[in-house]
Amino acid sequence: MTHPYIPNAEPGVRAEMLAAIGAASVEELYAAIPADLRLDRPLDLPEPLVSEHELVAHMRGLLGRNTDTTEALSFLGHGCYPHHVPAVCDEINGRGEFLTAYAGEPYEDHGRFQALFEYVSMMAELLEMDVVNVPTYDGYQAAGTAIRMAVRYTGRSKVLISGAVAADKMSKLHDFLDHDVELVVAPVGPGGEIGDVRIDETFAAIYLETPNVYGVVETRGRELAELAHAAGALLVVSTDPISLGVLAPPAAYGADIACGDIQSLGMHQAHGGGHAGYIATRDEERLVAEFPSRLFGLAPTEVPGEYGFGDVFYDRTSFAHREEGKEWVGTAAALWGITAGVYLALMGPEGMRELGETILARTRYAMERLAAAGARVLHPDAVHFREFAIEVPSADGLLAALREHGIFGGVRLDDRTLLVCVTERHSRDDIDRLAAAVREGLSVSGTIEGAGTPAAGETA
Amino acid sequence: MTHPYIPNAEPGVRAEMLAAIGAASVEELYAAIPADLRLDRPLDLPEPLVSEHELVAHMRGLLGRNTDTTEALSFLGHGCYPHHVPAVCDEINGRGEFLTAYAGEPYEDHGRFQALFEYVSMMAELLEMDVVNVPTYDGYQAAGTAIRMAVRYTGRSKVLISGAVAADKMSKLHDFLDHDVELVVAPVGPGGEIGDVRIDETFAAIYLETPNVYGVVETRGRELAELAHAAGALLVVSTDPISLGVLAPPAAYGADIACGDIQSLGMHQAHGGGHAGYIATRDEERLVAEFPSRLFGLAPTEVPGEYGFGDVFYDRTSFAHREEGKEWVGTAAALWGITAGVYLALMGPEGMRELGETILARTRYAMERLAAAGARVLHPDAVHFREFAIEVPSADGLLAALREHGIFGGVRLDDRTLLVCVTERHSRDDIDRLAAAVREGLSVSGTIEGAGTPAAGETA
Amino acid sequence: WDEPIIFEQSRPGRRGIAVPAPGVPAVELPDTVRRAEPPRLPEMSQLHVLRHYVRLSQENLGVDQAIAVGQGTCTMKYSPKVNDRFVTDPKVAELHPLQPDDTVQGVLEIYWRLERMLAEISGMHRVSLQPASGSAAIYANIAMIRAYHASRGEGERRDQVITTMFSHPSNAACAKTAGYEVITLMPDENGYPDIEALRAAVGPRTAALMITNPEDTGIFNPRIAEFVALVHEAGGLACYDQANANGLLGVTRAADAGFDLCHFNLHKTFSTPHACGGPAAGASGVSEALAPFLPGPTVEFDGSRYHLDADRPLSVGKMRPFLGVTPNVVRAYAWIMALGAAGLREVAETAVLNNNYLMHKVLQIKGASAPWGRNRLEQVRYSWQELSEETGVHSEEIGVRAADFGVHYWTSHHPYVVPEPFTLEPTESYSKEDLDEYAAILEHVADEARRDPGLVKGAPYNQTIHRIDPSSLDDPGRWSPTWRAYTRKHLS
Amino acid sequence: WDEPIIFEQSRPGRRGIAVPAPGVPAVELPDTVRRAEPPRLPEMSQLHVLRHYVRLSQENLGVDQAIAVGQGTCTMKYSPKVNDRFVTDPKVAELHPLQPDDTVQGVLEIYWRLERMLAEISGMHRVSLQPASGSAAIYANIAMIRAYHASRGEGERRDQVITTMFSHPSNAACAKTAGYEVITLMPDENGYPDIEALRAAVGPRTAALMITNPEDTGIFNPRIAEFVALVHEAGGLACYDQANANGLLGVTRAADAGFDLCHFNLHKTFSTPHACGGPAAGASGVSEALAPFLPGPTVEFDGSRYHLDADRPLSVGKMRPFLGVTPNVVRAYAWIMALGAAGLREVAETAVLNNNYLMHKVLQIKGASAPWGRNRLEQVRYSWQELSEETGVHSEEIGVRAADFGVHYWTSHHPYVVPEPFTLEPTESYSKEDLDEYAAILEHVADEARRDPGLVKGAPYNQTIHRIDPSSLDDPGRWSPTWRAYTRKHLS
């Protein structure tokens, strides 16, 4: 049988094509590959499931072994967030035209260029910055590149980095930067914000996250910006754009580079498959020169008033100059950029504001309820957005107890600390249900008094 | 808040529009409706769930109370069949362009016309008939109309109708026909096929189904065609097109009108939401004149070689002549026609043949296994396609026992009879699992010997 | 795209999908039933089937793509994408209609709740969600009317149904199919159905009045209660075709005017997608007196669980297989839940405002008119008569030319009582900017017609194909309703 | 569609979606963190947002619409629709990446099984599915190379990476980013990377050779094992960029030529969709010696359950958040399962046959050539040099004109070592008829270029927009990378 995916595997057409090119067999076409490099046996792979139904049955069997977050009540966050995904987002990114296009020219792929231009433009409004990249892989990469941009911009090689960063992200940053950038980690203050910060003129940047790994909203942005600028360094701020309907964007308090992950803006959790990274700056040529990503810009056409698009300052890139470009550029996460654009267009300014208010309020409510249930809520006086940490006698014990109630209670940061995530998807009832289960789970061992600031680890 | 579905509910734009038309309020525009007809209170409806997330949560809660046939192992058929739906079928009928278009002209909706023309054309090849309608609602309506076509064509008002028809379908046919057509029901023979048939020159048609309600493939089609034709009547045959990769189409044994349901061809069961009806005839003007449905045909355009489309013989329809048209025409089930076209194009002749062979073989296998498990299989010597009936001491009792195993065992035809459906979705393991559960379920009461032919009822 | 007919893309041996092998012994078929020749279906790879249909899909104008205000009477509105998600979920898509009631409680509850919502919206006693479409609901209503009169021994005598010219043709056609003689009221000089004609028609032979209001012209008949009363006095029933209900939600109800039966089109007023012409869904609402005749089964609630009741001796029985077009029932329910009472009222008011605003714009176009004044609810049947007399360009031609600019309009059902008609219905889904753009396109084409009638008559220029020669479509010797017929007649 | 920029469609007060109200007491934010001005996002109804993006979507050529053989090196193949269904199912889409292992056994098993499949296909010992793309996999490989040499005390000394001009720029660029000096081998007179240049370059400073084969020209270097051996002799590692693996599946393996590391692009060879440029997915395969350095965590199987192992002290750590791009891992797994060993071999053979057939057709076009002869596997970098010299029309211009006929091609990465390049890769997904049509379009445009060069240079004529003036894109005073920048510079 001719495989449904391979039209020219049909023997008749194959013979016809071989005849046309004057080859006796396909084997001839492989003449360039030396015999000693040839595999002399079939690959050892499972028997195929060529019929679509059998493939579906097989996959359904495998995937049916997962318990998803519509089945369990999940309070897991820590970099991947359960926000509501509007159906229109799925509709648009599911359309074959976007899903299967790639890298055409601004003419035949005009729609892709426009959609991505609109995405960066909406992010620019949210961030109050004029330049935003076509997405890179994720917030980790965005942070690494944003730091490298500051390093290149200043010509310095030390960076002060907030300690309130996820351990996995720290791992990525070390791998990406250590060979030529010295990362100095700033301690976390007792209130959950970045602690005492000192830099000098050997520093390229201060790197801050807000809300940080504990969900704490950093309030000293302006002070840090002034500190950095006084030393001739940049302030790089990583922030989740979903907070910016209510929280001031980094540019408002003087940040030079903003970066982060856009998974919150219309992407499913997808077991970590919904990530994409943004980087934004003001429109300063020297800073723009440091972007490795593509930047799409408006360009006029022959027809007055018509908008075309193209690459801004292409010469920066590795596509233009290989290793002489800035870092590298390649396929990253464009579809999620388009999707985030759809999300922001649906939400508008009011939607973003209301969403922020709902999340702030429900986060605070959950903190109060869990405190009342006997958990020790860390950094209770800080402003929290979407996440907060609790300290309990045994993180594993409590998580196991919550599992009995069909609840994924939070991400384990260390033996005694859990990170709890609350979004607009968690109703008041959901939070009450969590609190009741926590109360029950803790009743075995009671509450604990006094605990230090935990390390920012994760379970994976 | 302006509702997301109603852009001009925004107060500013509303005021602007009212000003443009010179009205003080929308109320003015309702002046034509007398006060005593006006509702003087808000409608009494549930509180709305305007936020999409809350709507999704509500619907998920409701729909989560259903157990679907990917969760249970279902052998339910009886007019709605669990065939594999190729992903490409869902992809195409989910595209907004097809899902939200309606009744444009052959120019701006060229794609819809072509897709439906191709659907009828593929059905024509399967049926070996030259004329096929744009789908009507379902197989019930198709049967009713096909019979009416024969009545109009012959000018007679008696129809001999096979007794091996589902009870619900009989109900529909009686409602639709009784006021001016006399339905004479032919008994079911001991082998499960239509029994003794006698007609005379007052009969407009013989109406036959194959496979019939018991899954029995009727073998006397040619004999019945000759009998009908000898009396100046027509043979109307209802058949599921999914069987026609292996079974002879009605035209091959002399049927004048074919009809049936196309739900099998790429539509989900969807709790009965996937139905559409086809009617087909030879290309004879007098017969074509009796179609109430739209018929789409090829038409040349100004550009040589270019294909356009249009309505064939539009004057037949109620759109053209209201009650002087044939029955009526309106919105029916066009999208399922397009989908069935996608299905047939994917399958091709070989796919249809292989599918038919798989179903025939697995049906026979299931009959043997259930017989071995202690059920009395009815009409064991007939050729069965996809369905067969079994007799057991208690239909309800066995169904309940199977439910304990997560199995929907079949459709209850009467107290002692179940109709079992087997398609390509049922693997050998699935059938073995059913057989084992039946054996266990029957072990309480043992097998039974000797039983008559059951009535063709249904559970709903 | 210049996309060939699918048969032209076939190459023997190719496959679009594979089928499970039997895995059990094969069955040999007797010759009497075995297919002799394989069907000549296309043979194509999966990508090629997909690509073909994706291209065809792009050659359509749906609500998701275009300013679809031109399909008057059809209530082209936004079908929320989220509602599509509910019905493609296996919890709907993979349900068998004959599953035990306790495994479909969610679906049954939705039927039950939607029935009560529509009863509240219409004021009727009960509602059947079984009909497959608006016309099927009309037929169901007629079947109930017939059963009602028969139950009273008047079945034979009452053999006439009265309808109006501006009610959908299916009112007349379904009545005729059900065996009734049809009497059609024409509009009076004000565009209302002629009440004197009704007085003349009504009598002991009257089974029912089947009437739309507002009619397809958009005109609301203020004497509707009088019409109903006249029919009632004669012992007939009054049946309300609510295809045009979009401007009336929460404003006036079928029961308020005394109707015995009514129907809604879920795919119009209640937003389920039009799907190129179905699957649709209808809802038949009836008064308490008619309730015993409703199609079966009905969904009942005993306080703890939902179940089907098929034991209804007076029921007209089955209108279609199983319970109803469940996916559309689910969508309509979700749509109402997203709006609530205030939202529905806002839908109605906005639809009426949009229509009056668009009318204001269209009537500023030279050559366009709306017979019978400006009293319109959610749609208007306009006329290009003036423009046509001036330029010789017909409404159909203007419509084809307008489609070059990405919009469609519908003329009207036959016969064209309003000459050179076009019927617009700008539902609540469209923005003021859409309406302005739409009117500007019509104005542009009207200008073209005056400047250069040949330009308009030569359209389309900017669409998939060029002007069609329809002559073969009514010629039995040449018509080609399938590729099979075409190849036989034209290619062999 | 002449679709405005989305900001131009905004009207204050409109909404595309509603958000749940808090339902609990509000939180007052301190001034230091409260946003002062609302962001100037568009305000539109839901239908209008949808319609805007649906229209934009239609203004693209993807695999589902077009004969996408022109994006050479990118392996544009059919992404089966059924695989998309798996990943939009909540059982993938609604999984959190930090759920307990026992609640994601299905996903972990797929990771585990796909790793073993790719290990078999490449001959490598283990495979990491964490990298987010091909370039990210290259970077991961470089990170492992660096860690490997560092673990042997040679990290400082080995500071050079050798690559070739016809390997993807990311090989050079990632190496540079990781701190390496990059040496690029140019092609010799036969189009192979120059082995003499390698001999000259390799030495004690060599950390690794990063090489593609066949290179982006489609030419397979038959001395590849010799290249690897030379590097090994110098103590360096050999890393195989398998972006061009589509013609090699089941034919030859990375391990067979002695490579220490390799990577695949799941969105190329293994069919996950290109998605306008990602999300993609990469797979890094390594020999046993390199396995301890793989990114973490890895998926392990203890005979009864799958679990994550993060306790790997030599690991280079995290390349991205969480485990990998799971949806693409699921799709790639399903694709291989639908094909099996024989199917993969058929993919490779057909890709090579298609390429050679298309090359046969293209080289019949006057003015087209393929430098360095006909030895090609699954793609060819062609040249319009002759045509360009004759007509003055450049390859970019021919490409734009070809798009008027619904197809795209890609020239090549910079610099244009092959003059006036265009790169075609007709994967196994395309039919002979597609290839004939594609070649016919190129031939038609080449004829046009000779007949009327201005016609070709003036393209596009048949696309959404007209010829772009790119001059502002490199001018800091005028460039407009966002609407915000544009309105500031050009509209205020």
Keywords:
heterotetramer; A: 460 residues; alpha/beta; Aspartate Aminotransferase, domain 1; Aspartate Aminotransferase, domain 2; four-stranded antiparallel beta sheet; 36% helix; disordered C terminus; C: 492 residues; seven-stranded mixed beta sheet; two-stranded antiparallel ribbon; 35% helix; EC 1.4.4.2 (chains A, B); GDC-P_N (chains A, B); Glycine dehydrogenase subunit 1 (chains A, B)
Strand content of chain C: 5-15%
Give the number of domains of chain A.
3
Helix content of chain C: 25-40%
How much of the sequence lies in strands of chain A comes to 5-15%
CATH architecture of the largest domain in chain A: 3-Layer(aba) Sandwich
Q: Indicate the low-confidence ranges of chain C by residue numbers.
A: none
CATH fold-level label of the largest domain in chain A:
Aspartate Aminotransferase, domain 2
Strand arrangement within the widest β-sheet of chain A reads 2-8-7-6-5-3-4
Mean pLDDT of chain C: 97
Question: How many beta-strand runs of chain A?
Answer: 15
CA gyration radius of chain A, whole angstroms: 26 Å
Largest sheet of chain A: 7 strands, mixed
Give the end-to-end Cα distance of chain C, rounded to a whole number of Å. Answer: 27 Å
Compute the average pLDDT of chain A: 95
| Uncertain residue segments of chain A | 446-460
Q: Which two chains form the greatest contact, residue counts included?
A: A-D, 212 and 206 residues
| CATH class group of the largest domain in chain A | Alpha Beta
Q: Which structural class best describes the helix and strand composition of chain C?
A: alpha/beta
User: What's the main sheet of chain C like?
Assistant: 7 strands, mixed
